[in-house]
Design goal:
By secondary structure, the chain is of the alpha/beta class. Helices cover about 40% and strands about 15% of the residues. Helix 2 packs antiparallel against helix 3, helix 4 packs parallel to helix 5 and helix 12 packs parallel to helix 14. The two termini are about 25 Å apart.
Length: about 400
């Protein structure tokens, strides 16, 4: 289905995980919403926006196994994390000495968010060490061992960014609820990548991107909030949804009767909501193209690529076949990370991120429906050229890779 996307045909694009890629027909829906807005911006934004967003959220909620009133649209998952973390700080839910329990595999921008919160509240982050190779059977106990009487928040990725691991989070969410610990799940890579049922999962807060694996336009993401926490959250921008009197020319009838969460988060005045309104078109696109079959094919290609490269380099995979989906971290021998990324992009025309974790170097491959066997063959051949002989496990020891390597995920 390469011809259904808008990607540059001269590039081998194996980096869907960073920003996603939108099918042409979904992109057309996005532009149609923008054109409709421009026909009468006052009617579209001033009278219809609330209803339009509710209708789009209803489709997404059904897809996610959630309730419409518990979902709000945000531009990206990092905004979702910021909304929750900074609300906890402003509401004094976190006080000096409190702890946020997380792992050493979290996304840098979200770690920066929690660092900021800790600086302003006196709380501190506790990172559970999750070693490589990854063992899913040990994950829950390794994380839970970090719980103390001061643990207030459990913050976990559902799928990690740099190491591309699927964390088995369900039991930890249940344990945290029983212990009175709030859970915030960073699901940036999860929607459209792995099955989700947010009501069954039961996390207090779950944020995910639609513009990545769900293939919606850029700037479409969601924040899911359990009903009892709606009043706890505050929007990054205080706007008309906070006004006690919404009558008169500044009122928006479409938001009358909506929940407090909707009014606070979505009634933000002038902004382009077309990306989120196009999410139902992305869901429909994937349904028509039998996406579970696409996901299985992509996973098989990713697994085969990992096996081929591991056989060449002699470096063992960092996880088992069930620990990743369409995205996997390929261990490669140590060299300058920035140089490797530049050589793959400029020398071989391959768009792919190079990541680092605890002194190890990885090429993180994302396989999406538009990718072909020829794409991954080109990557394997390029890496065999760069690393011409089997290097063995010693090849990933020694000097630490350049930490300025390209990040593997956007906000």
């Amino acid at each position: 289905m390469k011809n259904l996307f808008l990607l540059d045909p001269t590039q081998v694009f194996l980096n869907h995980g960073s920003f996603g890629a939108c099918p042409a027909e979904v992109f057309d829906h996005y532009h149609q919403w923008q054109r409709e807005m421009e026909r009468n911006p006052v009617d579209f934004l001033g009278r219809r926006s609330g209803t339009l967003l509710t209708e789009a959220r209803a489709v997404l909620a059904q897809y996610l196994g959630a309730q419409t009133q518990d979902l709000v649209c945000v531009p990206n998952a990092t905004t979702g994390v910021n909304t929750v973390a900074r609300s906890l700080a402003s509401e004094h839910t976190l006080v000096p000495g409190d702890e946020i329990l997380t792992t050493n595999h979290e996304y840098g921008a979200c770690e920066a968010t929690w660092d900021w919160v800790c600086q302003h509240t006196g709380a501190r982050m506790v990172r559970a060490e999750i070693p490589l190779p990854f063992c899913a059977a040990e994950f829950t106990e390794r994380v839970w061992a970090g719980v103390s009487p001061r643990t207030r928040v459990l913050f976990l990725s559902h799928i990690t960014s740099g190491t591309a691991l699927i964390f088995p989070i369900a039991e930890l969410v249940q344990r945290a609820r029983a212990a009175g610990i709030l859970t915030l799940i960073d699901g940036a890579h999860a929607p459209g990548h792995i099955p989700l049922n947010l009501d069954t999962l039961g996390a207090d807060f779950y944020t995910g991107n639609c513009h990545k694996w769900l293939c919606a336009p850029k700037g479409s993401a969601f924040l899911h909030v359990r009903r009892e926490h709606h009043a706890l959250l505050h929007a990054p921008v205080i706007s008309w949804g906070y006004a006690a009197d919404t009558s008169g020319t500044q009122g928006n009838a479409a938001y009358t009767g909506t929940t407090l969460l909707e009014r606070h988060m979505q009634w933000q005045g002038t902004r382009d909501i077309a990306a989120f309104l196009a999410v139902p078109a992305a869901i429909a696109f994937q349904a028509r193209h039998h996406w579970p079959q696409v996901q299985r094919r992509c996973h098989c290609i990713a697994a085969e690529t990992l096996a081929r490269l591991s056989a060449h380099t002699g470096l063992e995979p960092i996880c088992g076949d069930a620990d990743f989906g369409q995205m996997v971290a390929l261990p490669v021998p140590t060299m300058d990370a920035t140089q490797l990324g530049r050589r793959l992009q400029q020398g071989f025309g391959i768009e792919i991120p190079v990541t680092t974790h605890q002194g190890r170097l990885f090429v993180r491959i994302s396989v999406q429906g538009y990718n072909t066997q020829g794409d991954v063959d080109a990557l394997v051949q390029a890496l065999q050229t760069i690393y011409p002989a089997q290097c063995g496990s010693a090849g990933n020891s020694g000097s630490t890779p350049n930490q300025s390597a390209s990040t593997a995920r956007s906000i």
